[in-house]
């Protein structure tokens, strides 16, 4: 019943795309290929993605330039980007990746389990985000339909409680992830945790606004 999330894989080498598909197939989500930055930007015009895996070294529009275009678009600026690179130029090169808007920066060859685990976090967050937004939208329509009956009020209160509990579960997962990442004390940990925190804070704020007596819902 739940729609699968889309993951965008961007690499100019077909063998690299095949390797990524093999690693991520276990997540059972929709994997979309793009062999260039231009092709990736076209895909982003029509589809919503949970996360983007973006190769840095590509002919023509490289990963940094592609990321800059993604972050300039209002529709796509909040999509997490994980940079993949076969070279390591040191801290300056890594910093450029984060400056371009990446939430993580992984050097090849990478550990398949680690990459899959990182991607799964963003897929889970995306799916929860979609579920919460859909249910919150339905609840808002219900509340705006007029003064609810006693049964409707109980149903709305129950739905709010369910939404809050689901969000709390994701918040707990994110907190555990942050603690785990903090132990590595690297820039990737800071960037990933900060992105998750911003997303969850926004969701919690939107949910709190629906609570009776908040002014928005009532």
From TrEMBL:
Domain Response regulatory residue range list: 6-123
Modified residues (4-aspartylphosphate): 55
SMART domains listed in its UniProt record: REC
Entry-linked Pfam families: Response_reg
Sorted UniProt keywords: Coiled coil, Phosphoprotein
SUPFAM superfamilies in UniProt: CheY-like
Gene3D superfamilies: 3.40.50.2300
Coiled-coil zones: 160-187
Entry protein name: Response regulator
Organism name: Streptomyces sirii
Taxonomy of the source species: Bacteria, Bacillati, Actinomycetota, Actinomycetes, Kitasatosporales
